[in-house]
Amino acid sequence: MMPALTQVYLDGKFLPPDQAKVSVFDRGFIFGDGVYEVIPVFGGRLFRLPHHLARLEASLAAIRVHNPHTAGEWKNVFARLMEEHGTRDQSIYLQITRGVAPRDHAFPPDAVPTVFAYAQPLKYPPAEQLAEGVAAVTTADIRWQRCDIKAIALLANALLRQQAIEQGAAEAILVRDGLMTEGAASNIFIVSGERLVTPPKGPYILPGITRDLVVEIARANRIACEEKPVTIEMLRTANEVWLTSSTKEILPITRVDGRAVGNGKPGPMHARLFALYKEYKRAFIEGKVE
Ligand code: PLP
Fold first, then answer.
1. pTM
2. Where are the beta strands (DSSP E) in the chain?
3. How far away, in angstroms, is 250 Cα from ligand 1 center?
4. How confident is the prediction for the chain on average, in pLDDT?
5. Which of 28, 108, 118, 258 is close enough to 97 for a disulfide, judged by CB 3.0 to 4.6 Å?
6. Alpha carbon of 205 to ligand 1 centroid (Å)
């Protein structure tokens, strides 16, 4: 089913979704050969836009596709897509594939990237999830070794998320060589004593924009926050566990593999960090921070 949108952006044009067509020979369709971004819009402003555009640039560089738009051009595309939803909080989805070419693994020398974007109202996690937390299950990280690229090829992530859902959980916490990497579609923090801990950046995690903001907010408020490897043992004995993403923000995980995290309720550190995050967001909406 198509989302109920009046327009999407495709290759320089704004079109109704049912008129936006991509070739079956697009390498995004054939190989999953492309990258994407999801940018939240709060109070009509694109949240952490420079960070998202920098990550997009890094993803494109990693797959050797030229960024088809300047930052100014992207902003114009987003502004037009955002008009549709007025002042509501939204998320922008954008993806760039290597373009259309006869099927061959080697890069086509002259393909033109396909560029697609749309905006939709932001679906926040239900209030009950924030109040009670969500369940997660641990599972082997079966993905590749370039999880730092925001690649559209998300088959492993989809399988892992589905596995979590089928086990009655909201998210899969991925484990590689005894170390926690991230969620199927989120980064993970633990609270150990009075300290926040999250795995360091590298090839096995996506450098989450929300993750970085949580680290930044914690440090600005003198809350100890370490980026260091998290063992499965540290996860099992954590006082609190959270997931972070642009659309889920900072969500407590209160059960891991059927066992309660701490006392099974969202913890005081989550309450503190989430209040600071909301304060930051309010200041952003009011134009007081960039
Ligand atoms: N890790 C993965 C695998 C993701 O798919 C996402 C976002 O969807 C994140 C982390 C969180 O990144 P961000 O905070 O930039 O949304």
1. 0.97
2. 8-10, 13-15, 34-42, 45-46, 90-97, 114-121, 134-140, 171-176, 179-183, 187-192, 195-198, 225-227, 240-245, 249-256, 259-260
3. 12
4. 97
5. 28
6. 9
